[in-house]
Structures are given as structure tokens and as C-alpha cells.
Amino acid sequence: MLKIFFLNAVLVIMSGCAVAPFNSPTTARSLGQGNSEINFGLSPALFISGSMGLLEHFDVGASVELQFGIVGSAFAKYSFIDNPDRSSLALYAGIFAADAVANSKGFMIGPVYSYLSNSFEPYLGMYFNYVDFEKIDPNDNDIEDLNDVVDEVVALNSGGSTYYLDTTVGFNYWISEKTKFYLYAKNLYFMEYSFSDHNVWLVGTGLGFKMGSNL
């Protein structure tokens, strides 16, 4: 029952979460060389991520997310405009692999913009996501109760690939210089397959903690 509820709520059309991680950058600003950050929350899937400033304007990191299975990712972000306050602009890119009903792998890439004013930092991200997923085993016990929920899953039983656009709008509230609370809304627009609804809407929230001597 929990699996059916999650599939309906998130509308992960590929039956088995053959999608990229739902969690994504919440700011275009870089951490700064030598600094690091840990984030955790609901994306709406439970997730934890860690990142560090490898260079002055270049961050790298990884995340683990519990969608319909485990989704692991590695990512990087380069801040072209990197201001301690006001406007910042960055390019985000990453790769992922999912161990789920329909095992999948793929990549995501796109820009993120943020604007920091005092403790409030709204942001906007737009990411292209490509997913390659394996054939679904109809005898898999994990999906024996799902085909009655989503008719479109039949189209995915042969495996294949798809792509979609992730548009995320949210804000950070900086509780302190090193601690933030964030909330966002996310739209996934699937540009392939004739599903009954191309748009999937999600909401997420989390906490972030910065560490480092160069803050």
C-alpha cells in the first residue's frame, strides 16, 4: 500500500523511480575552497547530500535519495557569477544511478540562479534530465501490485530511455551564517511518451549546514 501511495503521490511515471534525484542545488553561490556543506530533508523522498568547495568557484558533491529504491548521484557546480550577496549564477551537472524496480542511470545539467538579501535567498533552477532504464520484470514481487495503478507502465516493460525538464523554484532562509532552512516546488515535464499527464508537481524541504574555516 505504501508503494502504491508513493507512486501516485509522486507520479513517477516510469514505475520504479527511473528518474534523476529530486534534490538539487538551492543556491548558485559556491561554498568557497575548503568549505563543505551537508543537506538532508524530504525532496519529497528522504535524502542526504554532501558537497565541498574544490576550487574557489567550483563545488563537487554526492547524494543518496530513497525514492522507490536507492538513487545515488555525483554532481558538480561552477559559479560563473559568485557574489556573497545579491545575484549569483551557476551551471549544475551530475550523473546518477538507481537501484529500483526499473534500474536506471542518466545525467542532469542546467543553470541555477539565486539572489541573497539579508537572510532570504530565493532561487530558480532549470535542469535537463536524461534517463536510461532497464526492462521491468513483470514477475518482480515489488511491482506485482503496481500495474493496476498505472496503466502506462506497460509501455516501459521493454526498457528504454526518456528525458524531462526539471524546473525548481524555492527559497533559503538563513537561520545563521552556517545554517539554512529551505522550501521549494518542482515541476517535472516529461517530453517523451504519451502519458495522461506530462507534468508532475512536487514539493520539498530540507536543512543545510555549512562547515569550514573560510566562511
Report on the structure:
- The chain has a single domain, classed as Porin (Beta Barrel), CATH 2.40.160.20.
- Helix content is 4%, strand content 55%.
- It contains 1 helix and 10 strands, in the order αββββββββββ.
- The protein has one helix at residues 2-10; strands spanning 36-42, 46-55, 58-66, 70-81, 86-99, 104-116, 120-133, 160-174, 179-190, 199-211.
- The chain is globular and about 50 Å long.
- The termini are far apart.
- The relative contact order is 0.21.
**Termini distance?**
46 Å
Given as residue ranges, the uncertain stretches (5+ residues, pLDDT < 50) are 1-17, 143-157
- Helical residues, percent: under 10%
Radius of gyration: 18 Å
Give the strand line-up of the largest sheet. Answer: 1-2-3-4-5-6-7-8-9-10
What is the fold named in CATH at topology level?
A: Porin
SSE diagram, text form:
Elements: H1 2-10, E1 36-42, E2 46-55, E3 58-66, E4 70-81, E5 86-99, E6 104-116, E7 120-133, E8 160-174, E9 179-190, E10 199-211
Antiparallel strand pairs: 1-2, 1-10, 2-3, 3-4, 4-5, 5-6, 6-7, 7-8, 8-9, 9-10
Summary keywords:
disordered N terminus; 1 helix; 215 residues; mainly beta; Porin
How do you describe this structure in short?
The chain has 215 residues and is mainly beta. It contains 1 helix and 10 strands; from the N terminus they run αββββββββββ. 4% of the residues lie in helices and 55% in strands.
